[in-house]
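Quick review question:
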């Protein structure tokens, strides 16, 4: 699979020191190919600076949402070397998130609840397949390291006669310091897509 993103982002990335990018983003760099490589969700991604494209060599799981390439290149550009906050927040807790994450940018967690309904055990199994670690939250929950510096949690509640099933994504508070809202949205859409396609 090949994914296209704004060529200006590749130019911005090409201007950075590969050693510095690899240290921050915990990835590899092929000098001959002028390409960064990193493993995410069990798939191997290659970001070609001169070809202005991102290629994915698929593992066994479902492929990424097309938005995921936006997150991937911003990860290489922006993620800092500093530690995580180890504090979960929702998208509404991110500065500007309460107004941004609605309407066309509403996080599509209904993809997950539509897929699993009240089958909480099936949700747990899907999280385990994707490398999730169980969390003692909601009716079922798991944390994921999308990259070594990008932890997220997905929470799930089964429905009853008053409320339908519901899923929610939480983010480490540190992500709000270096990812723009549209980049977090791109990440969230990919999470919902992968969890619902199991």
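Suggested answer, residue by residue:
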């Amino acid at each position: 699979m090949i994914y296209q993103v704004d060529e200006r982002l590749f130019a911005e990335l090409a201007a950075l020191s590969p050693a510095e990018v690899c240290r921050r983003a915990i990835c590899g760099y092929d000098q001959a190919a002028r390409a960064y490589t990193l493993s995410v969700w069990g798939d191997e991604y290659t970001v070609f600076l001169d070809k202005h494209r991102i290629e994915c060599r698929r593992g066994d799981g479902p492929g990424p949402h097309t938005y995921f390439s936006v997150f991937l290149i911003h990860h290489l550009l922006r993620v800092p070397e500093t530690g995580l906050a180890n504090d979960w927040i929702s998208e509404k807790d991110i500065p500007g998130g309460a107004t941004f994450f609605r309407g066309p940018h509403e996080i599509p967690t209904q993809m997950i609840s539509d897929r699993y309904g009240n089958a909480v055990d099936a949700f747990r199994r899907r999280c385990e397949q994707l490398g999730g670690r169980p969390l003692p939250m909601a009716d079922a929950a798991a944390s994921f390291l999308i990259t070594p510096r990008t932890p997220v949690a997905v929470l799930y509640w089964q429905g009853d006669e008053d409320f339908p099933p519901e899923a929610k994504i939480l983010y480490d508070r540190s992500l709000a310091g270096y990812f723009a809202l549209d980049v977090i949205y791109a990440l969230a859409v990919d999470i919902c897509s992968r969890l619902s396609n199991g």
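Why it works: The longest helix spans residues 181-196. The chain is about 30% helix and 25% strand.
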